[in-house]
Amino acid sequence: MKYLVILSSVLLLFSCKKTGENLVLKQGQVGENGDLTIEAVELSDSRCPKGTNCIWEGYPEAYIKVTKGDSINHLSLGGYTTYDTIMFDYQIALIDITPNPEIEGEVKAYKRKAHFTLKKL
Q1: Among 44, 63, 77, 119, whose Cα sits 20 to 30 Å from the Cα of 87?
Q2: What angle do CA 88, 94, 95 make, to 5 degrees?
């Protein structure tokens, strides 16, 4: 019975329609999806640390460089701007920046990771 449940779960997973690729990048890292290249140039997070009360809630923000062939675009996702965009026939969305800010002190830039989804249109 246990194997039947596992087999059913695996079959269900592979039968689901793929909605996009997940991409996780640290600051300075470059990721690829087909013919699209994304570099996480700078990641910042001014959100209020968990367990505290802040006057301003803050926001995560990713400054990225998107390249396809000879075309290069720089843009910011998050912050007061949009969290997703369409570029080079891809929908690029910033899902989150982790880890969340902590009460004990600022999260160092090299520990931050930007979580994106990329969907070919």
Answers
A1: 44
A2: 140
Q: The domain that contains 105 carries what CATH number? A: 2.60.98
Within the chain, residue ranges assigned H as helices are: 2-15
Give the Cα separation of 5 and 2 in Å (integer): 5
How much is the pTM? 0.77
Residue 10 has pLDDT above 70, yes or no: no
Token pair, residue 90, equals 């891809």
How many C-beta atoms surround the C-beta of residue 120 within 10 A? 14
CA distance 36 to 55: 39
Q: How far is CA 3 from CA 8, 9, 15, 21, 61, in A?
A: 8, 10, 18, 29, 44
Looking at residue 116, its pLDDT comes to 95
Residue-number span of the structural domain to which 115 is assigned? 19-120
